[in-house]
Amino acid sequence: MQSSFWQVFLSTLAAFFGVQSDQNRRKDFSQASPMPYIIMGLVLAIGLVLGLVLLVSVVLAP
C-alpha cells in the first residue's frame, strides 16, 4: 500500500509539472481506477495554492 501511495504521488507530481514520461503515463492509464490520481492531483493543487498564499503573506508581512 505504501509503495503504491508513493508511486501515485510521484507520478502525479511529475504530471503536475509536465515532466511525466510516456512509459509512466501509459502505466498510470492502465490502472483500474483513476480516483487515486484525481485525489492526489487535488491535494497537490490545494497544497500549491496554500503554499503560495503562505509565501505571499510572509513576504508582505510588515
Tell me what you see in this structure.
The protein is mainly alpha-helical and 62 residues long. The protein contains three helices and no strands. The chain has helices at 2-16, 22-29, 35-59. It is elongated, with a radius of gyration of 15 Å. It starts with a helix and ends with a helix. The model has no long low-confidence stretch (mean pLDDT 88).
Number of strands: 0
| Radius of gyration based on Cα positions | 15 Å
Helix content: over 70%
Straight-line N-to-C gap? 45 Å
> What is the H/E string?
HHH
The share of residues in extended strands comes to under 5%
Q: What structural class do you assign from the helix and strand content?
A: mainly alpha
Overall pLDDT confidence = 88
Tally of individual helices = 3
Q: Biggest β-sheet: count, sense, barrel?
A: none
Tertiary shape: elongated
Report low-confidence residues grouped into runs of 5 or more. Answer: none
Pfam family, one: DUF2970
Organism: Shewanella sedimentimangrovi
Transmembrane segments: 37-61
InterPro entries: DUF2970
